[in-house]
Amino acid sequence: MHFDIEGKVALVTGANRGIGKAIVTSLLAANVTKVYAAVRSLDSAMSLVNEYGDRVVPVHLDLAKPETIAAAAVSASDVDLVINNAGILHKESPLSVEAVHALTDEININVFGLIYMAQAFSPVLAGKGGGAFVQINSAASLRCRSDYTTYSASKAAAYAVTQGLREKLKPQGTHVLSVHPGPIATDMAGVTGLVNDAEPPSQVADSIIEALRNGDFHAFPDAYSKRIAQYYQAFAENVVEADLIKVS
């Protein structure tokens, strides 16, 4: 399904910085009518309001608090496009004494938060004719680095949920997009120590707009993720995106 963002209303979680802020900027430059900046602290989105005026509407949303997600879906009942960008990362290997705690925390935000977002907003999108739901996953969902095993595990789970959403939301006309960035120049890149290899967050934003227009399910925005895509794309097309239930 192709989705043209021009003239649409969007909601972006984690909109106050990094990839989320770049997504807001790119959406507005591409003529989205309005963006709900979904953030934990409304004050953190004021710089966007100061720059773009009433085209940006801050809304309180915390992925760890399902009640705020449900409330946001009521406040932003006119959205055509939902981009779930917010997430957390812990630097833990599977042998770390903190591994279970870290994974529990990451699953709570990166996976359960995604599920709550989909459950709250899919009826809203259905009411707007389908719209689009975008999940910012990670190249880490496809390739685990041992020091970030718990993060990779949570993003692999989020990717599985995104695949399930693609199938379940298709009948209502909702296009689902899974985005898999590699190292991007954000605060998270500083945690991973990959700052030297990081690319601008605007590349993620631009790849989302392009993938939606093309009707793609996957987006690989940067050089690192594109290298993975060279080998993964055939599997994605023939397994992930294929209907394997049908027998020829």
TrEMBL record:
One of its GO terms (molecular function) is oxidoreductase activity. It holds the Pfam family adh_short. It comes from the Bacteria. InterPro entries: NAD(P)-bd_dom_sf, Sc_DH/Rdtase_CS, SDR_fam. Signal peptide: none annotated. Keywords: Oxidoreductase. PROSITE patterns: ADH_SHORT. Belongs to the short-chain dehydrogenases/reductases (SDR) family. PANTHER family: NADPH-DEPENDENT 1-ACYLDIHYDROXYACETONE PHOSPHATE REDUCTASE. This is Short-chain dehydrogenase. It comes from Methylophaga sulfidovorans.
